[in-house]
Amino acid sequence: MSHYKHLTPSEREKIYLLHAQNYSLSFIANSIGRNKSTVSRELTRNSNKDRYSPSAAQAAYARRRKQCKPQLKLSDPALYEYVRDRFLKHQWSPEQIAGRLSLENTDQSVSYATIYRAIYAGIFDTKEQRASHGNRGAIRQLRHRGKTRQTKDHLEKRGKIPISHAIADRSAEANKRCRLGDWEADTVIVKKAGPCLVTLTDRKSRFLLSRKAEKKASVEVRDAMIQCLTGQPCFSITPDRGKEFARHGEVSEALNQVPFYFPLPHHPWQRGTNENTNGLLREYFPKGFDLRKVTDTSIQNKVDELNKRPRKCLGFKTPYEIYYSITLHLT
């Protein structure tokens, strides 16, 4: 551990006065309690044409001190604006931002830890957010916003429906995510007694299909699922056990007898791909949002944006790139 201390302005003043009176370096060093080499180095480094000025020496020291400190990554305006845009406007996570920059081998790079520190330090907050004691600023844009999850003892109160196949019977190809066309299904309610979003997520690519249903009922959900999956590769569908999927047999018949596999009760992690995607979708349509004011085109635009967001589980490629086997340029 180093106990070295930099020279102070008052010490530089003493060096100047004693040096001007032609005292030896040893005498000057003993007078200020420093090593002789410290005084010699100070006079050599900070003298101009054999003239030593304590004020000029202190200013030169301050400049060197500032330059030797590492520059903050986000002090680069271009990188700062890129991170801010992807985080605040496009809801990319810090890992997605850092991973995509690395994947595309850009000149800019930043770690996700640096982005998290910047978020918690308030670098991306507006003046109004900083002035408010109740507004947590950009931290609220993080994925979970500090919300708690349901406990394992949570009681599912939704009605029971007949099931065609248990998830234990699902094929190995679907379980191992070896192919496109194995879908997980659910509905997302943003406002009670209103429209809902029917969501279907491909297990391999994480590609999302979604359509608005006028209400969370089996007929409307059935029609939305058929519209979403018509023309898409479809080998299996794994929904939850909600009553809105009671007409799954009619969906199966309309889609060339595609089988439905139902998870065990209170086991949402058995269709975790869709659960996670629904959480991402809620960034655009939070609880309380009125879907009646949103057009189908606007919903599709948000779905497209989500499908073109890089994912860590895909090596920071996007679901769109995996599903369509193409490469995008996003940075």
From TrEMBL:
Q: Which Gene3D superfamilies match?
A: Homeodomain-like, Ribonuclease H-like superfamily/Ribonuclease H
Q: Does Hydrolase appear among the keywords?
A: no
Instruction: Specify the Integrase catalytic domain's residue ranges.
Output: 158-327
PROSITE patterns from the UniProt entry:
INTEGRASE (PS50994), TRANSPOSASE_IS30 (PS01043)
- List the keywords (alphabetical): DNA recombination, DNA-binding, Transposition
Under the heading Pfam families, the entry gives:
HTH_38
State the superkingdom.
Bacteria
Tell me which InterPro entries the record gives: Integrase_cat-core (IPR001584), IS30-like_HTH (IPR025246), RNaseH-like_sf (IPR012337), RNaseH_sf (IPR036397), Transposase-Integrase (IPR051917), Transposase_IS30-like (IPR053392), Transposase_IS30_CS (IPR001598)
Briefly state the protein's biological role.
Required for the transposition of the insertion element.
The similarity annotation says: Belongs to the transposase IS30 family.
- What name does the UniProt record give this protein? IS30 family transposase
Lineage, please? Bacteria, Bacillati, Bacillota, Clostridia, Eubacteriales
